């Protein structure tokens, strides 16, 4: 009985010792928040797409870092690409925040199933080829995003579309050209000088 | 006949020793020329890295996924209703640090001849579905718990590497964790604990909302 009373008073003490941690939700007009829902959902999903690409690059970087692969130039190239993809995800998050979005359901925006599908590559050239394919698939998804956001009958989101075409697509096309050029040089080198070609190319990358 | 004798002699040499040099001799000899270029014994593995590999993989994955948790916590504080740029900056910084730690752990593993496995994820990490949209003091508390759990993971790895588990003794792994991880995390934990102390005293009074505003302003600096 005594113990019960003690527990009871203790629990009361806890309640009364509560700090004022929660504060009143402010009352702010919402008519400035004008993004269409299908567009918002698409952008949120694209955050995950960028992170998936990031982890795929991370797997390439981990592969070329291995002692029995030993291509530090390729590894650095792909670690850098992994960082860039994460930065793209963060840029999209910042954009949504600027437009008044992401006020709820943020916790489930990034799920814990980002393990990359492919983790082994036969050569530097196959990895560059995969990277180019990955970039073009991301480009396609950004174009899909643009189409959804500009063809919402109730709201054509010019501003986001301009940001996606000007910023994101520019980076995609420049990145793809860079990868294609690298792959071209590497393939020409390896045509006559297989192992030596890849060795020299890797040292140039580092 | 002579070839057979040489072959058996070589097999004997290879089987009684596992050194890289023997491997090279065997690979470079004419009789085994078909195995050219395959030096299975010339890897970077030494010490107990093979026995610590799985734990290091889980550790690297935890660092990367926790960096995403902090990114979402930062996102929550960046929305117009919360609008706490200081808290956003704090959690974004924690996210960036764990992301870098994750990459550095992968680089470290490959330095020691180990490989990364992105599917080797701690089960408690996969199962949990935490809310990351928290009030300020709650968020500091959750961040402190996350950092302490990672510190404990590092301590467990260190304990195994220090030889308290059979066949795990690897002072180089222990040293790496001490130098590259533990010192930084000690400071992160101390900073968060300090924030928890300050914030709890600021919230204990009639000016709680003003206290929060000023504390967020301080975090922006």
Automatic annotation (TrEMBL), chain A:
Enzyme class: oxidoreductase
UniProt entry tagged with the keyword Transcription: no
UniProt keyword annotations, A-Z: Disulfide bond, Golgi apparatus, Iron, Iron storage, Metal-binding, Oxidoreductase, Secreted, Signal
EC number(s) per entry: 1.16.3.1
Domain Ferritin-like diiron: 33-190
Domain of life, per lineage: Eukaryota
Sites where the protein binds Fe cation: 50, 85, 88, 135, 172
Main location: Golgi
One biological process term in Gene Ontology: iron ion transport
Subcellular location(s) per record: Golgi apparatus; Secreted
Stretch forming the signal peptide: 1-17
Subunit structure: Oligomer of 12 light (L) chains and 12 heavy (H) chains; L and H chains are disulfide-linked. The functional molecule forms a roughly spherical shell with a diameter of 12 nm and contains a central cavity into which the insoluble ferric iron core is deposited.
Protein role: Stores iron in a soluble, non-toxic, readily available form. Important for iron homeostasis. Iron is taken up in the ferrous form and deposited as ferric hydroxides after oxidation.
Family affiliation: Belongs to the ferritin family.
Protein's recorded name: Ferritin
Source organism: Ceutorhynchus assimilis
UniProtKB/TrEMBL annotation, chain B:
Residues where Fe cation binds: 147
A GO molecular-function annotation: ferrous iron binding
Signal sequence bounds: 1-16
InterPro entries named in the record: Ferritin, Ferritin-like, Ferritin-like_diiron, Ferritin-like_SF
Family annotation (PANTHER family): FERRITIN
GO terms under biological process: intracellular iron ion homeostasis; iron ion transport
Entry GO CC: cytoplasm
Gene3D superfamilies xrefs: 1.20.1260.10
SUPFAM superfamilies: Ferritin-like
Ferritin-like diiron domain residues: 46-203
Family statement: Belongs to the ferritin family.
Name the UniProt record assigns to this protein: Ferritin
Function noted in UniProt: Stores iron in a soluble, non-toxic, readily available form. Important for iron homeostasis. Iron is taken up in the ferrous form and deposited as ferric hydroxides after oxidation.
Keywords assigned: Iron, Iron storage, Metal-binding, Signal
